[in-house]
Write a structure and sequence with these properties.
2 copies of one chain form a homodimer. By secondary structure, the first copy, chain A, is mainly α. Chain A has helices spanning about 5-30, 35-55, 60-70, 75-95, 95-120, 125-145, 150-160, 165-190, 205-220, 255-270, 290-305, 305-320, 330-335, 355-370, 380-390, 415-435, 440-445, 450-460, 470-475, 485-495; strands at about 225-230, 235-240, 240-245. Chain A folds into 2 domains: about 5-95, no CATH class; about 120-499, Neurolysin, domain 3, CATH 1.10.1370. The first copy, chain A, has 20 helices and 3 strands. The termini of chain A are far apart. The interface between A and B is large, with 40 and 40 residues. Chains A, B: It comes from Sporosarcina psychrophila.
Amino acid sequence: MSTEENFVALLKKMSAYSEAVSIMYWDMRTGAPKKGIPARSEAVGTLSTELFKMSVSEEMGGYLEELGNRKDTLNPILLKTVEEVKKEYDLSKKIPAEEYREFVVLTSQSESAWEEAKEKADFDMFLPYLEKIVATTKKFIGYWGEKDGNPYNTLLDQYEPGMTTDIIDEVFGQLKETIVPLVKKISESGNQPDTSFLFKKFPKENQKAFSHEILKQLGYDFDAGRLDETVHPFATGINIGDVRITTKYDENDFRSAVFGTIHECGHALYEQNIDLELEGLPVADGTSMGIHESQSLFYEQFVGHNENFWTYNFDLLKSQSPEQFEGVALEDVLRAINVSKPSLIRIEADELTYPLHIMIRYEIEKGIFNGDYEVVDLPEIWNDKYEEYLGIRPKNNGEGILQDVHWAGGSFGYFPSYALGYMYAAQLKVAMLKDLPNFDELCGNGDFGPILDWLTEHVHKYGKMKQPLEIIKDTTGEGLNAKYLADYLSEKYTKLYNL
Amino acid sequence: MSTEENFVALLKKMSAYSEAVSIMYWDMRTGAPKKGIPARSEAVGTLSTELFKMSVSEEMGGYLEELGNRKDTLNPILLKTVEEVKKEYDLSKKIPAEEYREFVVLTSQSESAWEEAKEKADFDMFLPYLEKIVATTKKFIGYWGEKDGNPYNTLLDQYEPGMTTDIIDEVFGQLKETIVPLVKKISESGNQPDTSFLFKKFPKENQKAFSHEILKQLGYDFDAGRLDETVHPFATGINIGDVRITTKYDENDFRSAVFGTIHECGHALYEQNIDLELEGLPVADGTSMGIHESQSLFYEQFVGHNENFWTYNFDLLKSQSPEQFEGVALEDVLRAINVSKPSLIRIEADELTYPLHIMIRYEIEKGIFNGDYEVVDLPEIWNDKYEEYLGIRPKNNGEGILQDVHWAGGSFGYFPSYALGYMYAAQLKVAMLKDLPNFDELCGNGDFGPILDWLTEHVHKYGKMKQPLEIIKDTTGEGLNAKYLADYLSEKYTKLYNL
């Protein structure tokens, strides 16, 4: 066999392991009996370790070296594959094995410590762990090397290849200028929607039926996926023909299931529509966290919160919970599901205030790695920023800096993806309108096929064959631009609140 | 690390692979989306291949040799583990790799050929495959070596360690003497039960509720398992804390789900109650096909068909399908669910005629490997035996010799386990009565705990730490004895049919 064939064979073997690990995770989260979990976790650990060993093996190193030395002889898929695998290989190999092992132990202890600290709202309990994690991450950045003169870029690039603080500073700055005053105006507006009917009982079985119907409308392929229930919704691509989603049914707030399902559907449509030619290779995956999030947010916000979407689906919604919507007009629903109110907890935030939560985390992370902030000072910095951007201040660190697990797990550079995805989505939407000027009409007719086709053609099918900013450039003709999201939010909320 | 520790580490690693493969199989059969199946099958193939490689690796060979040379230094669990692993190792290593590979290809082609042949009821289409499979199996027996002077014993031993044609000839002979005349008398009896109400509609959701309730009664631990739906019911032990069962709901015949569930429950209780000390080792499994089947049949026949079991559960049954049982007395149900009638298809046979189907297959397999029968003559031999034992003759080979897939897959020596399990179960039941003389009363009170405890104490907890006949000897004080099953069937059917 040629080196190419051996390389692909090794990758496909790794893909089998990764498929096994994915299905075991899915199973643990959707219904595995609890007494089987300890043995299951060990099994997952064993297979993950084997997978890691293969990824940094001498065999792998040999292939990467040979193929890397003659890139001009590789077809485009193999070329991209070599680059992607090499990137991961280097990330792993540049850290001394013993230091990496210590870091894994540290983050695991740190997550436990965080859990207790959060419950007790006691930052001091978590402080020594966070300090060590930050120190180690700084050391790792030293091994990996700074990107474009900024240590934080090294972390950003791991989740969003090609993304830099220069770009983010600019787009977040622009976005902030629109959102902060909007939020303030809304808070002060006397024109608040009635949301009381949202919290009436909507039976779980009916939410399930509604979710299934919406998924079918949007083009989710049930022959290549399934919908289950979990505490925390997620989408998982096990292979291109098996992309599962889960949702959460709250009988006293149907929005959780409806928008959760649509959000995960956006993630799933991305992975269901990757070109089958890429199957079994590492390039058969979303190209970045941000682009992945752009697809989920595109569906959640630009389709699921579209007025015509609800014109089309209001009867269906009512039929699944008739009492709840008695005397409620479509317009009431539209106002209620788009309510905006500053809040302290990121995962409960609405679509207008959400980006502010992200900006705060971004600014803090950048400050940490650029040496502007000391870890011990972070709670105060956090609280000040909430007051500045959202006009509210956490009463304690439990509802402040301790609310998210990311830092305890050593994930820095991940948060920005959430807001980047939102901006990508808005920008893609404007580009889509050029090809589908009848977008609203399509939503009003429940004709979502052309929307999915467009996204598949411009985003999905490529998998990792294009970088995030390449997709944006090729599709919209420019780099990331915050204007589109700013315009969208501004127009939408001005209208909704009659500002 | 010591050799012992290295050996156990390798086995636990294999156990992780095997856990992954089990969960992937379970998933494929219970609800994996169909478009993901090709990639999933490849992943299962990859992991199974790796598992096989480990099982015959030089590393494994080295451990087995060293530990086999100093068995007196091993603790009982490790000693048994070495013996079990060595047995499998030898089975695999004695066949030249290329011949084994060819055999795998042959059986795979043969299964496809069988499928078509069965559909067309055309034995000639299947004949060349079956001849090759038999010839190859004979060659393999040559490699493995004859057991106790009989080539067929070599095959029996793979499913039922220690079992020989001498033992089976005796017990099957004894059983036949009871069953054949009984079946004849019943066929000629004018006292046939009314079974018409069995086939009335029993809604699936209610069958599900009933199944769950029965499982709880019998002691199935839902924290260590779950019940799902499949076309062919099965139980699968993923680890000791995760033993899942599936059943099939036929709305026009509730017996399928009820007795299917109880049968699989018997298998599952076995694996849920293996001593946790054995977890992760190959000895943490049922000791043989026959003993496994003894547990499923114990529950299906001796509990699930017990008169008092239904006294206790009749109200529950009625409440789940009130119309169906209007005007039906408990006695009618008992007679109907115990109806016996000779039939041609093994998997549809009742509990009285079932052993005859097994005996026919056993006699034919023995005849093949002892050189008494030629493959080409088998259809005629098959049909003659059905006429002799059951008084009916297949009209074609589709409902005759082609009905089962086992031989197409190269499984010879497996069939007897079904009837052995039945005899083990009857023998265990009589032994249990000495400790639990109030067995019927327990069933009548829905108090199944003591029954499960007894089986755990005498059978389940040992896993593979005892051989099948060792369990029977230790528990009942004698070897396998067909008398108990013969007596049970004789007494039961004489009473039911007023013979």
